[in-house]
Each structure stands twice: as structure tokens, then as C-alpha cells.
Design brief:
The protein is mostly beta strands.
């Protein structure tokens, strides 16, 4: 199996939030419709106001938040206000346009650890109406020493209720001691693995925090082994058929989509208002052409 090892790009959000960005990257900009993947934390959010991401806009995607530890308060321009807690998923569909903010609730647990993903919407759903869904319960099974939570799609005969618009898989696998598991693959899916805690061995290749492991379509089975407690995220999907441009918080079909979204965020009410905020994020200057992903 032809693996590609891709280092994450690490940064600090706010005062102390460690971010490891696995997608997009120069080597592999998408995995299926998954076009963005961050591991956020673990981070201490007890100081000051904790996590604070002011209102900002999205188009052409679904934001997919998987909470591992702690709590985050989601608020959006549709009026939804939802605290996400461990083992839950928030799915926000931007479509034509939405704005939202993510902050620490009061009171709050001291630590935040989450995976934040984006799903590019196919051409037929690109401009659909914005929406928000909260999924407090997801299918969890015990398999070969692992606790397997199916976040979207189907694995080990367990199917997630999280509604997406492309053939996709996301699963969280967690073990408390040395374990070995064989994971069945779909031959039409490409896949990626990101370690969230500890270290694993994938088909005899060691993998630790800070590296995304990618492999293309055609696989049938993958063996994962650990020597101690570990946790990893498995994502997959059919290769995306259309080109997508990813810039700031926007996913567009072409440069014109991005440029129009910038203008509308600055000069129109396309993205609505998130109540209770006096500030918001502003886009950086767009210079030149944006490199395409997928297709």
C-alpha cells in the first residue's frame, strides 16, 4: 500500500490553543470531500475568557466538530446556540452563506480537545440553504480492544446518523492498552489517519502525533497496532469530482465565488448576524489566484 506521510502545520490560536493542521496541505489538499482537518488542543482554557473565535462567514461547506474533551459554545446567524460536549458532533451547513462564533461557555471545564473538519459541498448542494444539526449520540462499538465511534458513514456494521452529501467516513478509535485491529476499507475510498493521542503502527509503519498518513483508493484492509493507550481519527471518502478553491473561511467553485463572498461579508447582509457580539473576523487581503483542490 502506497502511503504518503504529511507533517501537520502547527500554530497557536489565541494565547494557548495548539492547532495541528493536517488538511489542506501541498501534498494532499483533500481526502474525499474532507477539505480541512485541524486537531485543536488539548489546551487549558481556564484563563481569561477561554476560547474565543469571533463571528466569521462560511460558504460551500459543512463544518464538522468532534468534541474529545471540554466544551465549546456554538452560536450562528440562524439563531442556534448549542454547547457541544465530549463524544458529540456539531454539523453546520454553510451552503449559500452563514456566520457563526465559537467560544468557551461559562462555567466551563479546564481543558479543550477537539477535531475540526470541513466537508466541501458537491456542485448540486453548493448553494443550499444554511442549516445546523447537533448530534448528541453516535454509534459506539467495542472491536479488538478499541472503542470505535462512527462519526459519519459506516464501519463495522455501525452507521452514523450524521447527514452529509458525499460518500464519507469518519471514525474515532481509542484503546486503553496495547491492541491490534484490522479495519476493512472501501476500494473506492481514499483514506487518512491522524493520531490524536499516543502512537500507533499502521501496516508496520510507526505514526505519531504531528503526521497525517494518506493512502489512495484500492485498499481492502488496514492493520493498526498500538503498544499502549492511543487514539486516532480515521477519515475517508471517494475522491472529490470537482475542483474547489479554499481560502480563509470560504470554499468556492472558482475565484469568483471567493471574491463575491468577501464583498458580501464586508458590504451586505448575506451572512446574517450572530447576536451578542460587537466584533467579528475580517478576511486578509486576497492577492493573486487561489490554488485549486480536488477534481
Amino acid at each position: 500500500m502506497d502511503f504518503v506521510r504529511i507533517p501537520t502545520r502547527d500554530a497557536i490560536l489565541g494565547t494557548d490553543m495548539q492547532i495541528r493542521r493536517a488538511l489542506p496541505n501541498r501534498q494532499q489538499r483533500m481526502i474525499g470531500a474532507w477539505c480541512f482537518l485541524d486537531q485543536a488542543g488539548p489546551a487549558n482554557v481556564q484563563a481569561d475568557e477561554g476560547m474565543y473565535v469571533a463571528p466569521h462567514p462560511h460558504i460551500g461547506l459543512q463544518t464538522f466538530t468532534w468534541m474529545i474533551e471540554g466544551e465549546i459554545l456554538h452560536q450562528d446567524s440562524l439563531g442556534y446556540r448549542q454547547v457541544i460536549r465530549p463524544n458529540q458532533v456539531n454539523l453546520m451547513t454553510a451552503g449559500y452563506g452563514i456566520s457563526h462564533a465559537e467560544t468557551s461557555p461559562t462555567p466551563r471545564p479546564p481543558c479543550v480537545h477537539a477535531a475540526q473538519l470541513w466537508i466541501a459541498l458537491p456542485d448540486a448542494q453548493f448553494d443550499i440553504a444554511p442549516a445546523f444539526e447537533h448530534y448528541p449520540e453516535l454509534p459506539t462499538i467495542q472491536q479488538a480492544g478499541f472503542k470505535v465511534t462512527v462519526l459519519t458513514g459506516e464501519l463495522f456494521n455501525a452507521t452514523s446518523p450524521v447527514a452529509v452529501h458525499s460518500p464519507l467516513l469518519a471514525a474515532d478509535l481509542h484503546c486503553e492498552q496495547a491492541s491490534q485491529i484490522n479495519i476493512p476499507l472501501r476500494r473506492d475510498f481514499e483514506y487518512g489517519i491522524l493520531v490524536l493521542d499516543g502512537a500507533i503502527t499502521v501496516a508496520d509503519q510507526p505514526l505519531e502525533i504531528g503526521t497525517l498518513l494518506y493512502w489512495p483508493t484500492g485498499g481492502e484492509m488496514i492493520q493498526i497496532q498500538t503498544h499502549a493507550a492511543a487514539r486516532f481519527l480515521l477519515i475517508g471518502g471517494t475522491p472529490f469530482e470537482s475542483e474547489r478553491l479554499i481560502w480563509w473561511n470560504f470554499v468556492g467553485r472558482n475565484q469568483a465565488d471567493i471574491e463575491q463572498a468577501i464583498q458580501d461579508w464586508q458590504h451586505s447582509d448575506r451572512f446574517g448576524q450572530v447576536e451578542g457580539f460587537s466584533d467579528r473576523l475580517e478576511p486578509p487581503e486576497l492577492v493573486g489566484r487561489i490554488k485549486a483542490s480536488g477534481g
